[in-house]
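Below is the record:
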Amino acid sequence: MTRAAIPVRERLIFAMDVPTVDAAHDLADRLGDSVSFYKLGLELFMSGDAFPLLDALAGRGKKIFLDLKLFDVPATVAGAVRNLKGRGVTFATVHGNQAIMEAAAAAADGFGILAVTVLTSLDRGDLDDLGFQCDVEELVLSRARRALAAGCAGVVSSGLEAKKLRAGVDDRLIVVTPGIRPVENRAKDDQKRVVSVADAFANGADYIVVGRPIRDAADPRAAAESIQDTIAGLFPGR
């Protein structure tokens, strides 16, 4: 799918960050048609029965972003990616190592590989501790260019770096932005490089990933619909 052809209501990806599959089914029932795209991550996959959940969501016509951030020797990552064929996955994530990205992209069949650039839970101090002396934006840009060259569909990147990605990388690159906090919901948590819904898309994101502001709302469906309304206002006529 080209960037311009993304259906508006699929631009919101809900992060199904709950501890059990039963909780995930319950939340999916509560959200109904307010969410069309789900992110399934490590916590849920370690709880058991995650693949039946994936199959159930796909059977309901939902799209799946499988966010396991695979990182292993390239052959092992490629084997894991091949095992996702036919499971209803739209995107799967790997860490931004060149050989891993190339192996994953070559093994993907019917879905796109997204490379993780710099986790949104990291800030400048964290990167210094890891030995990265370059600017965060420059690191993200370098990894994004490498991802596209490796055959990846796109990258996972903070909305703070999305604008530079749009200016400095081929327009084919899909940008998925986590760490989204609605303006009225900026509670301090482990996400350090956050942006609002409008800012993320203004900076060039194609999809946004929202978790806690929906999951922890008194009415999760109403919270999701509010974000959908915001997105619809940013993409009129689509």
The chain has a mean pLDDT of 87. The chain has one domain: 10-234. The CA atoms of residues 3 and 174 lie 7 Å apart. The first helix runs from residue 21 to 31.
